[in-house]
Amino acid sequence: MVANATSTSGLAAHYSTIIGAAGYNMKPATNASTSVPNSVVYYAAGQQAAALDIANSIGVKPAQVQPLTTAVPVPGVARSCPMTTTTSVPATPGS
């Protein structure tokens, strides 16, 4: 699931499409309940490798890949799959 934590309309849908094209099954894009300063990929237990792959595909640095906790700014997120909160993602992967 990709959640938009910015005021830029359509950002979550855009990155959902990119991640889905990489072979991941995507839930509908949504909005985060709060804004966050950086893009973060949150992952459930056992999903760190997938989260790192997703982060790389959308240009999020490995340091921004974090375990999924109750502090995630998206209400109702299941802990069974990686989830991305999108803010300002670099234009080129890995930058």
Describe this structure in words.
This protein is an alpha/beta fold and 95 residues long. The chain has one domain: Alpha-Beta Plaits (2-Layer Sandwich), CATH 3.30.70. Helix content is 23%, strand content 17%. The longest helix is centred in the N-terminal third of the chain and has 11 residues. The C terminus is likely disordered.
Considering the chains and any ligands shown, give keywords for the structure:
single chain; 95 residues; alpha/beta; Alpha-Beta Plaits; five-stranded mixed sheet; disordered C terminus
Roughly what percent helix? 10-25%
**Strand percentage:** 15-25%
**The level-1 CATH class:** Alpha Beta
Question: How would a textbook summarize the main sheet?
Answer: 5 strands, mixed
Distance between the termini: 22 Å
Low-confidence stretches: 89-95
Helix-strand string: EHEEHEE
Number of domains: 1
Put simply, the count of helices is 2
Order the strands across the largest sheet as they lie in space: 2-1-5-3-4
The CATH topology assignment is: Alpha-Beta Plaits
Work out the number of β strands: 5
Class from helix and strand fractions? alpha/beta
Coarse shape: globular
- The rounded Rg comes to 12 Å
Assign the CATH architecture: 2-Layer Sandwich
